[in-house]
Design a protein that fits this description.
- GO terms for molecular function: lipid binding.
- The protein has helices spanning 5-21, 26-32, 39-44, 50-60, 66-80, 87-96.
- The chain has a single domain (5-113), classed as Hydrophobic Seed Protein.
- Helix content is 57%, strand content 0%.
- It has six helices and no strands.
- The protein is mainly alpha-helical and 115 residues long.
- Helix 2 crosses helix 4 (50-60).
- The termini are far apart.
Length: 115
């Protein structure tokens, strides 16, 4: 996988946010680091690595309250603002990993409306 330092630093920051505010469940925290494997896909397109989907599942799957769903929304909104991100790839990532979101991933989505 080709990680430029900019891409890696950006995803490392997001990954750190995931771990710090995600559920304390050890199963979730063990899988969440795999989101870093989504970097190549959201910057270059192509095939979504299975390990990326493991991370998306660990992050999106447990979001079963309004607060957690809004957090997921804010996180995707933050990532959508990264320079060079292929927005189409980011928008289709959860669905390609078998997760359904109740909002459109966008740099301007109003996450306060996610319930």
């Amino acid at each position: 996988m080709d990680f430029s330092s900019r891409n890696f630093v950006g995803f490392f920051l997001v990954l750190t946010i995931f771990v710090l505010v995600s559920s304390p469940s050890s199963a979730q925290n063990l899988g969440i680091w795999k989101v870093a494997f989504c970097t190549d896909y959201v910057y270059n397109g192509g095939e979504v690595p299975a390990v990326c989907c493991d991370g998306i599942d660990a992050f999106v799957g447990p979001a079963d309250t309004t607060i957690l769903r809004q957090f997921v929304c804010e996180t995707f909104k933050f990532v959508a603002r990264f320079p060079g991100i292929l927005l189409d790839s980011l928008q289709t990532l959860p669905e390609k990993c078998g997760q359904k979101l109740d909002f459109q991933i966008s740099p301007v989505v109003d996450c306060s409306k996610v319930v």
